[in-house]
Amino acid sequence: MSAPQQLHELLSEGNELNVVCHNNPDPDCLASALALGRIAAAAGIEESHIHILYDGDISHQQNRAFVNLLDIDLSTFDPKTIRDRPPESLLALVDHSVPGANNRIPKETPIDIVIDHHPADGVDARFVDHREDIGAAATILTEYVEALGIDIDEALATALLFAIRRETLNFLRGVTREEYEAAAFLHESADDELLHRLSAPSVTGETLDAISTAIENRRVKRSVLVSHVGRTTERDALPQAADYLATLEGVETAIVFGVINGAIQLSARSPDPRIHAGNVLRRAFSDVGSAGGHHDVAGGEIPLGIFADYRSDDETLLDIVEQVVTARLFAELKISADSKK
């Protein structure tokens, strides 16, 4: 039995599906969840019993446009509903794979379905398709939709195609033959005008301010740039700033961090083949938070609790955060913090 058939059979055994997105979900996660929901409906689960759940914020203007223009029905994640669900209720993770890692699912929670492309250890579920070599989770779900003959309407095709394009930076990052094949399958059903609107959403003033702050605070040593945005509410300004700063002449690796609510968020971009961005962040911060990702794209989160002694003074807190995070990054990259180059 093929993997798509195995997934279909498992879904046909349930009467409810909870698809839990990772914290602050992006288009790849959301499109994958939408596609899995369509497969579940084809397997016999009533649409009213299919729930796409998320935690955190959908703050990136492109992500907000994605949800609004495609009219994706989302619900806030509540760990109690997962803990108390009946046996016939299936639990799925898409675009992430481990309970408690980039999600609020209690650790050791049994998982029914995992479909992911991010590096991870300890992936365990009744059904697992974990392919680190694939460029997007949406690519895997597109394969399933095609193999199972699921009716693909304009909204689903547009969501999946945009997710693949976004996750691979328009087929320039981590792309494989499977992404091209998936795009070819989706192209005829997708809405070109909607794809254009999703690709060029409006930008908030807060996002521009955060990116401006990152530009001003940049520190470049060798080919590595480290910067911070201070405190912001615009979480997705970090990857946007990292993307922009990575284009600076002479820079091969850009890492941007900032304080958002009760945590330090990090975003890294590294086309440099000598540096694995995910490993750098994981080794630098795994003892105080969660971090990791791909060779060229990575992120992390550090609870501010480790800086409890400084939280009453925001200016001092930001200074200490900048010093500690920057020092850890340069130490992991084996770059002297005192060096000028």
From TrEMBL:
InterPro entries: DDH_dom, DHH_sf, DHHA1_dom, Oligoribo/pAp-PDE_c-di-AMP_PDE. Residues 223-324 form the DHHA1 domain. Residues 19-164 form the DDH domain. Pfam families: DHH (PF01368), DHHA1 (PF02272). GO terms for molecular function: nucleic acid binding. Transmembrane segments: none annotated. PANTHER family: BIFUNCTIONAL OLIGORIBONUCLEASE AND PAP PHOSPHATASE NRNA (PTHR47618:SF1). This is Phosphoesterase.
